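Q: Two folds, back to back.
A: First:
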Amino acid sequence: MAEVTLKVQGMSCNHCVQSIERNVGAIAGVDQVKVSLADGKVDVVYDEAKVSRAQIEAVIDDQGYTVV
């Protein structure tokens, strides 16, 4: 398992948190997702054999947020 902390811009409320946690958590190979609204960060634990960091970032980008 790999763990990454992504800096994400554009999150402003609990709906943002729930949206990212739900959509990233639905990706096959993602084990855990924890969003920190105050810090603008998303912590993800995932299986590198099943999903790449780029795929996770793409799902966040597709929701209208920016991974920096």
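A: Second:
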Amino acid sequence: MNGRRVVVTGLGALTPIGNNLEEYWKGLSNGVSGAAPITRFDAEKFRTKFACEVKNYDPLNHFDRKDARKMDPFTQYALIVSEEAIKHSGLDLEKVDKDRVGVIWGAGIGGLKTFQDEVTDFSRGDGTPRFNPFFIPKMIADIAAGYISITYGFRGPNFVTVSACASATNALIDSLNYIKLGHADVIVSGGSEATVCEAGVGGFNALKALSERNDDPSTASRPFDKDRDGFVLGEGGACIILEELEHAKARGAKIYAEFIGGGMSSDAYHITAPHPEGLGAKNVMINALKDAGIKTTDVDYINVHGTSTPLGDKGETLAIREVFGAHAYNINISSTKSMTGHLLGAAGAIEAVASIMAIQHQLVPPTINHFTDDEELDSKLNFTFNKAQARKIDIALSNTFGFGGHNTSIIFRKYEG
């Protein structure tokens, strides 16, 4: 590539533990759990009756009623976090060359609630095909990027990546590369997901992927704990404004971190289970380190995929130990999914924001809900259990892995000017 450097100049977040960037970071640093009984629908007959929902959310606080009805919640979330990130970046929409601003978004599923509701209504009818004219544009995953582009008039590269839980991280990697290659100067990137509905909870229950700790939802997401029993479904989104360094400097932008590399790999193993020896996780971190041009000993913090599933946590731990060797014991590791739950296609976006904020504040957010060590994991690794830890963080790595064997890893560095 041509050596163009890429930096972060704006952030936005809407999560189960905070409805904006400031609230999200406060929740992370204080170890707040976003898990609680489901309010979106009556979950009494479901095996899992709780989730990490966005709290106190009313679309009419952000959109007029007519516009809100045209958008699935995942698109609403995308517009909310992109607005916050653009404002946070200080980007002058009157001066920026909009032909050079792109939108690359991530969503693993898209409008699941819309699809569920439309098909349910049809099945209850007399067979006459009566569908909402916005059914298709509400449902398709790419519509989130389309709405952001239309709202702001951004005419650069515009698409959505879909790779299950790796979707948003794939979007960020594509954004990094498009800017490096000179196809854009600024890209609005991130991800959003809204699957806390009957189809989402029921589908993941059928896979036996979700925790069923209904007696104590707030401690149900417990990555690396011996008694972990599955992930907790989350919702929301996050946005990152990525910008070519000289473009950012020319407009006097505040720079929050430098985005120095990304890696991708495939397990080539199973549609839902991770490789038992963490092969894909190992390869993706090696690829990211090579792309960033750094050594294993340069990494200070890893925001792990850490979903709280028995196989996933074990495989990722094995991969970290193999890739980083003795240095693995000098790295802080944490799973912020212990607080936010698993946002599926948006997970990589909110966790990238967590990694960037960790660099900004020199503070590692914790892995909460740890009660019992798992003898199959390496207890000498620093999982940052239960309490945030202050430390020097120059480089942070973030992992996200998805059904289908999709693996992504991205690396941010403290910007020194």
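Q: And?
A: The CA atoms of residues 108 and 137 lie 16 Å apart.
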